[in-house]
Amino acid sequence: MATAGKVIKCKAAVAWEPNKPLVMEEIEVAPPEANEVRIKIVATGLCRTDLYHLFEGMHEQGFPAVLGHEGAGIVESVGPGVTEFQPGDKVIPLFIAQCGECRFCKSPKTNECEKGWAADNPDVMASPEPRFTCKGKKVLQFMGTFSEYTVIDQMAVAKIDPAAPLEKVCLLGCGICTGYGAAVNTAKVEPGSTCAVFGLGAVGLAAVMGCKSAGAERIIAVDINPEKFEKAKVLGATDFVNPKDHDKPISEVLAEMTNGGVDFSLECVGNVKVMRSALESCIPGWGVSVIVGWTDMEDFSARPVQLISGRTWKGSLFGGFKSKDGVPQMVKAYLDKKVKLDEFITHNMALEKVNDAIELMKEGKCIRTVLSVSPQ
Q1: In angstroms, how far is CA 105 from the centroid of its own chain?
Q2: What are phi and psi of 158, to 5 degrees?
Q3: CA distance 233 to 133
Q4: CA distances from residue 4 to 33, 155, 162, 251, 262 in whole angstroms, order as listed
Q5: Which element (helix H / strand E) includes 350?
Q6: 189: DSSP letter
Q7: What angle separates helix 272-280 from helix 250-257, to the nearest 10 degrees?
Q8: CA distances from 198 to 147, 231, 241, 255, 329 (A)
Q9: Which tens digit of pLDDT belongs to each residue from 132-186?
Q10: Distance between CA 344 and CA 267 in Å, rounded?
């Protein structure tokens, strides 16, 4: 393309400091260096983790930054040493790398990778060497999909089917894979089982979909917002519980509903109290509870006997998917109508409306907002 090898000036939503609205700016995006890919972002979802970085984590070294990590786009140019991608390829950036060479990548037991910012800088949530500048300052990039262009190492980019609609499959860059995979890959939900999903945001609803796909017979959706129950039903939920409707702990309510507890529970909120409730909702002996919601602000706790009695408590990052392998598979599953995406999208907006989208998410009025970033 004509822009290859040159600095690109484009629009981006910049987070100059924590707990403040994002600001639309013109930024400079450097050409890709060795093993890097420069991507024209077409669409991006707004994920709760973006809000976590902005309003909760607020790591002082994590700003200024261009947030956004649930994007999809088209390769504009590639740096030296890149052979897997070429201009024009449809791709999804990945917040977990898959180098294919480290001990984690070689192990079937995990989707972690020793390389990439998720391993090197988990607090700052960005690479220390960004390719963005604005007003003479370096701007960090949490993947940087709130920009018309971003630059990503090739080990954190997945090539996808050219038939895939980018404004839909962008959601597979984080939330949908995270919830769906937590049920299918991490919990390993079994046919005929009873499950409970705590939190019906995009991740929780994707977990409901995963439980359904795995053959669960009963899927109990738990949320304090009853407006989300109808959406959960569409994705496979069979029962709905609002903790506000009961004067006893939710774990007791679920135990009474299920003759002692559920086989599998998934916490998709990122709240340490809910994590404990999800664990306590599992049946002793074989119950499995998976922590899916992201937080690193507080310690969590449980009584030892809750695990001694045979429950398993585990965590899931990006649904256990090895990123470069799993995302193209999920794109194919969507194209084959085996997983749903359209049902998660409640709002479509231009990137310039990102602060409105943030308010909708803070108020619980959306499942996923897809932001249009660049024309295809």
Answers
A1: 20
A2: -115, 130
A3: 45
A4: 12, 20, 21, 57, 55
A5: strand 345-350
A6: -
A7: 30
A8: 32, 14, 10, 15, 26
A9: 999 999 999 888 999 999 999 999 999 999 999 999 999 999 999 999 999 999 9
A10: 18
